[in-house]
Design goal:
203 residues, alpha+beta, 4-stranded antiparallel beta sheet, 8 helices, 40% helix, elongated
């Protein structure tokens, strides 16, 4: 970096990472959250096109994690950010594309949406004001299991079938179950991760 622009570059990056007020402090005396900010400031001061962050929120308290994630989103507006993390909720909040590596092998490389849609949903949540007995729901074709829940709700496990929801709606109208809500549940990231991990072990 040209010596003539060092001061202005430092000022800019201190402001961007919100650590201007800490510029006279020794790094070893800073909290974990501020140390992470200093590390990010060091990474972006030369305006690189790509920034690699390894477990950037590790060891931070909840408030610091929120601030760190906000900062990552901000720096990602100007450059590509490669984020390494084992915290799936963090990946879900920050990533647009995912590369999953298991035992040294790439087992997935695609968008976040593609990752979340690997597993075909097999449960739905249903709410009815006149909730029937589980046996009545189990009598509907393709329904495999029913779990009764509070607040007039139930969870239904089913064999994949595009028109099952429509048949439940018709049955509710026929039996006066007074259906008020029905939606298919997507698989969680933990389930997808477990499936991909298991697949890589078997290969």
């Amino acid at each position: 970096m040209d010596k003539r622009v060092i001061k202005s570059a430092v000022d800019e990056v201190l402001e961007k990472t919100s650590i201007t007020q800490m510029r006279s402090r020794l790094i070893r005396n800073l909290s974990g959250g501020y140390r992470q900010r200093v590390g990010i400031a060091q990474a972006i001061i030369n305006k690189p096109k790509v920034v690699i962050l390894d477990e950037p929120t590790n060891g931070l308290d909840p408030n610091q994690i929120i601030e760190a994630r906000k900062l990552i989103r901000e720096i990602a507006q100007d450059r590509a950010v490669l984020l390494s993390s084992h915290v799936l909720s963090e990946i879900n909040l920050l990533a647009k594309e995912i590369i999953m590596i298991e035992s040294g092998q790439v087992v997935f490389s695609d968008t976040l949406d593609a990752f979340n849609n690997i597993l075909q949903p097999n449960t739905m949540l249903v709410r009815m004001l006149n909730m029937p007995y589980a046996d009545e729901l189990l009598a509907i074709e393709d329904v495999q299991k029913v779990e009764m829940l509070p607040d007039n709700k139930c969870r239904i496990w089913f064999q994949p079938n595009d028109d099952l929801a429509e048949r439940i709606v018709r049955k509710s109208a026929e039996k006066n179950w007074r259906l008020t809500a029905i939606h298919t549940e997507s698989s969680g990231m933990d389930d997808v991760f477990k499936t991909l991990s298991s697949s890589s072990i078997l290969q």
